[in-house]
Each structure stands twice: as structure tokens, then as C-alpha cells.
């Protein structure tokens, strides 16, 4: 077990947080990041569900969002302050989205991820996502392809077992309030 467990609070994102979110967004995605209006639009969209993660000192450390349509969810973004990557914050945010999917009877989850983003791809694969195709030239800044990743039905025993194992391991590194 890790001796230094990080503690974070994850809460629904508010419009008042968008300026701080944009600071992470710009560092994470460079010149082709979402605008303030894009986030405001998402936070006004009834299908969209966004979360902010804070450390105990009240600093924004990451955020994530998804859309829910019928029995499917689409993860739109997960980003963490660059200096805090590899501290399980992104995994905690992904876990929050999965928890919400279980609570809202969402069966399938999809997302796009840069083909070169091996860290994110590994995390998604750890949680049972599989690459089922490619969107050629999806990213405008460099024409990079995106992998399209999907889960099986998250209510299937095989998926739920993997999810529960991952949640237990995550608790060794991070406490979510």
C-alpha cells in the first residue's frame, strides 16, 4: 500500500470555475483547447455532466465531463494539471463518471482519444474500454487520428468485477471525498 494517499474532492462543475478549468485546459491541450463559451455551453446542456476535482487546499487539480443519451455515455474530456499527472486523479475522475453511469443505468460508454496518448489508452483499457475504430485526422492541430473506444455493457458481471477491482486498487492511492 502507498503511504502517501492523496485526498481530493470531486464535485459537479460550476460556471464560476470555468476560468480555473481553462488554465488546465490550455496546458493540457495547447492552442486547440475549448473556449470559455464551449464550457459554458456544456454546463447549460442537460445531457452534459461535468466534474471538478480539488485538493484539500482548495486548488483545482482536474476535471472531466460526459454526455448521457438514453443508455449511452460519451466521455468528452478528462484533464489533470500537468504537474499532477500519474497521481491517479484522472482515474478518480473516470471512476466518478462510471459511478454516475451505474446510478443512471447507462450501459455503454464511448470516447475518442489521441492515438499517441498511450497513458490515457492504458487507463481506459484497464477499465475495460476497447478500441473499435479510428477517426482519421480527428485532431485539428496536427491531423492526428483518434481511437474510438467503447465499453461492453457495464452491467455485465465481467465488466463489473474488473471495475470493482480497479476501485479497490485506486483506494490505495487516492481518497475521494
Could you give the topology of this structure?
Layout: E1 6-12, H1 18-29, H2 36-44, E2 48-55, E3 60-69, E4 72-80, H3 89-103, E5 108-114, H4 118-126, E6 130-139, E7 144-150, H5 157-170, E8 174-176
Parallel strand pairs: 1-8, 4-5
Antiparallel strand pairs: 1-2, 2-3, 3-4, 5-7, 6-7
How would you summarize what this structure contains?
This protein is 33% helix and 34% strand.
Description of the structure:
The protein has 177 residues and is of the alpha+beta class. It has one domain (6-176): Gcn5-related N-acetyltransferase (GNAT) (Aminopeptidase). The chain is built from five helices and eight strands. The chain has an eight-stranded mixed β-sheet, sandwiched between helices. The longest helix is centred in the middle third of the chain and has 15 residues, at 89-103. The mean pLDDT is 92.
Content of β-strand: 25-35%
Number of domains: 1
Run of helices and strands = EHHEEEHEHEEHE
By secondary-structure content and strand pairing, the structural class works out as alpha+beta
Q: What is the C-alpha radius of gyration, as a whole number of Å? A: 16 Å
Chain-averaged pLDDT: 92
List the strand order in the largest sheet.
Answer: 6-7-5-4-3-2-1-8
Largest sheet: 8 strands, mixed
- Report how far apart the termini are: 19 Å
Any guess at the CATH architecture?
A: 3-Layer(aba) Sandwich
Label the overall shape: globular
CATH topology: Aminopeptidase
Annotation field: number of helices: 5
**Counted beta strands:** 8
Oligomer state equals single chain
Low-pLDDT runs of 5+ residues are none
Helix content: 25-40%
Name the CATH homologous superfamily.
Answer: Gcn5-related N-acetyltransferase (GNAT)
CATH class placement: Alpha Beta
Amino acid at each position: 500500500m502507498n503511504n502517501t494517499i492523496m485526498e481530493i474532492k470531486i464535485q459537479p462543475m460550476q460556471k464560476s470555475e470555468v476560468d480555473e478549468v481553462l488554465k488546465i485546459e490550455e496546458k493540457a491541450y495547447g492552442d486547440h483547447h475549448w473556449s470559455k463559451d464551449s464550457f459554458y455551453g456544456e454546463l447549460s446542456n442537460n445531457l452534459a455532466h461535468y466534474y471538478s476535482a480539488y485538493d484539500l487546499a482548495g486548488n483545482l487539480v482536474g476535471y472531466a465531463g460526459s454526455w448521457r443519451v438514453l443508455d449511452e455515455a460519451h466521455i468528452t474530456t478528462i484533464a489533470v494539471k500537468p504537474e499532477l499527472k500519474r497521481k491517479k486523479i484522472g482515474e478518480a475522475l473516470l471512476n466518478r463518471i462510471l459511478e454516475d453511469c451505474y446510478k443512471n443505468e447507462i450501459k455503454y460508454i464511448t470516447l475518442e482519444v489521441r492515438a499517441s496518448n498511450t497513458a490515457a489508452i492504458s487507463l481506459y483499457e484497464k477499465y475495460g474500454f476497447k478500441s473499435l475504430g479510428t477517426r482519421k485526422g480527428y485532431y485539428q492541430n496536427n491531423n492526428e487520428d483518434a481511437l474510438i473506444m467503447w465499453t461492453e455493457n457495464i452491467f455485465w458481471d465481467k465488466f463489473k468485477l474488473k471495475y470493482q477491482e480497479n476501485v479497490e486498487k485506486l483506494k490505495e492511492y487516492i481518497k475521494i471525498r
